[in-house]
Design a protein that fits this description.
The chain is of the alpha+beta class. The protein has helices at 25-34, 45-50, 65-80, 85-95, 99-113, 118-124, 131-143, 146-154, and strands spanning 3-9, 15-21, 38-43. The protein has a three-stranded antiparallel β-sheet. It is elongated.
């Protein structure tokens, strides 16, 4: 079995790092999650050398990590206040100061207005939203805890 290097946040938000054997990267991510950790980076040493972006939380070039975090935090707050998802994303789009964040919000709004779930709308944006984030949003939608999941992601 391959050896994977990982970085994760523990239950209290402290960064931890280590190595774990597993049949696949996804299996290691699942094991870390089941242990109550939030995986940030999981990969083999050779995979890390082959790609400059090994982080699960690294976003694409259209909006910065800070902007995406801001978007996620604002969306959680608006949903907790009782706004519908399309209305909340529309408000964020209208209030976004950066053109890149405005473009992200506009694309997400168009997708959810067209009938996609938030997870599907994020997934369409490709590398901007990593698979672990999309999976967490999908789980939040299914369990009815989307605002709380978005808060956790933003943290």
């Amino acid at each position: 079995m391959p050896n994977f290097h990982y970085t994760a946040l523990d239950r209290v938000g402290q960064r931890i790092a280590g190595e774990m054997q597993g049949p696949s990267r996804e299996a290691v991510i699942r094991q870390l999650s089941e242990a109550g950790h939030f995986p940030i980076d999981v990969g083999t040493q050779s995979a890390r050398a082959a790609t400059a972006t090994g982080s699960l939380l690294e976003f694409g070039r259209s909006a910065s990590t800070t902007e995406i975090t801001q978007f996620t935090r604002q969306l959680a707050m608006l949903l907790k206040a009782g706004l519908s998802l399309p209305r909340a994303v529309n408000l964020i789009e209208g209030e976004a100061s950066g053109r890149r964040l405005k473009a992200v919000a506009r694309g997400i709004h168009a997708n959810i207005s067209g009938g996609k779930s938030l997870a599907e709308a994020l997934e369409v944006r490709g590398r901007q939203f990593p698979p672990v984030l999309v999976s967490m949003v999908r789980a939040g939608e299914a369990s009815g805890t989307l605002p709380e999941v978005l808060d956790r992601i933003a943290e």
